[in-house]
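Record 1 of the preview.
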Amino acid sequence: MEHKTAGPSHESDSQQQRSLSDHEFIARMRAELYKRPSMRLVADRVTHIMLAGRIDRDDPILELIESDDILDEKTVLSDAVERILSFPHLSAKEVADNYDKNWANPSDALRKLSAKGEVIGLKRAGKFRYPEFQFSLPGEANQVVREGNVALGARDDPWGVASWWLSPNPSAEDRKSPVQLLGEGSFTAVRALLRAEIADDLA
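->
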């Protein structure tokens, strides 16, 4: 198959995008989302998330949205992070010591597993922490976690995947979390939840 190389127009567009200010980039993204009928319902929320990380009081884009929404978004994100960190989590050395891992360099070993998406590594204040359930569960449960981490995209979204494992699942019996179900040996139920989650993401 013949591959076409990017022409001058493509390169020019890329250069223009890189030269955009944060405000211009966010405004353009919002406008593009509104052009798509299927995206209009989420356009404002996406804008809020993009603004949550940085915001200037004089930014004219604030005229388009409610400033309280940005604060709400920051609060939601902060609460979600704190909730995840309220569960037991370990440093690389603690993982190796507590679970008899014969790694010459625990940090390097876990970074490689995280890069494959097999293990959730949460970066906080410049350091990585690893939710303990990934190592404390028995054999088959641990395998389900590894497979689930890869399928759910833990490499690119470790916080989101950690939240999925640790949060009550409305589709589970008694709204138990997937980790609770694994602890009870309900591997089939967890695999069913994983399939449903992946199918929903692809829909």
